[in-house]
TrEMBL record:
This is DNA alkylation repair enzyme. Pfam families: DNA_alkylation. InterPro entries: ARM-type_fold, DNA_alkylation. PANTHER family: ARMADILLO-TYPE FOLD, DNA ALKYLATION REPAIR PROTEIN. It comes from Streptococcus acidominimus. CDD domains: AlkD_like_1 (cd07064).
Length: 206
């Protein structure tokens, strides 16, 4: 049995042991019933895979096979595991991993996961400025969750925000009728206003 299989099997057993059908129904309803849940609260869920992430960080190795296996599962807790894993190991993600990441951002998506995965893309853009063009491409994608990722990927950049890029991405989505896109634009401007309120004010006026 490989390490990947052992970790997956053990985590599955832990998740199943902690499953709470009553909480699962409520958690699924909160996500508009798009996903099934085990019904495990976030703090307890994270405890179950803390050692997996710790070992991966120590080994400086991302187990993409494990992440792919987890992502295929119907319960949302698995998808949260993938997001938490990648965020904790984001320094190890490289531009060569984009094809692997692309699968995650185009499947099993809702606001709760895309708003975590955008942090990974933000990290990559900060290290590989040439990926700014990819964000512009993303900003015009038919799949609106990809557009939301593009809008929010600089949310933690503060004074390092590329305002020209931000404005281009927002302008490309200003006529959207999609609630989650308009909400993302509002959040992006609100977040950056904490760093540069004058720029945000000028942008809104324009």
């Amino acid at each position: 049995m490989t390490l990947t299989t052992k970790q997956y099997t053990r985590l599955k057993e832990q998740f199943e042991a902690l499953a709470d059908p009553v909480k699962a129904i409520k958690m699924s309803a909160y996500m508009k019933n798009h996903f099934a849940f085990y019904g495990i609260p976030a703090p307890e869920r994270r405890k179950q895979y803390a050692a997996i992430i710790k070992d991966a960080k120590k080994a400086k190795h991302i187990d993409w096979e494990l992440l792919d296996l987890a992502w295929k599962q119907p319960q949302r807790e698995w998808h949260y595991f993938v997001c938490d894993y990648l965020i904790r190991l984001k320094a190890l993600v490289t531009i060569d991993d984009l094809p692997k990441l692309d699968h995650f951002i185009r499947t099993q998506q809702w606001w709760d996961s895309i708003d975590q995965l955008d942090e990974i893309y933000g990290e990559l853009v900060s290290r590989y400025p040439e990926l700014k063009q990819l964000m512009l491409t993303f900003s015009k994608e038919p799949y609106f969750w990809i557009r939301r990722l593009a809008i929010n990927h600089q949310s933690s950049f503060k004074e390092n925000t590329d305002t020209h890029l931000l404005s281009q991405i927002i302008i490309a989505n200003l006529r959207s009728q999609e609630f989650f896109i308009n909400k993302a634009i509002g959040w992006a401007l609100r977040d950056y206003s904490k760093t540069n309120p004058l720029w945000v004010s000028d942008f809104i006026v324009k």
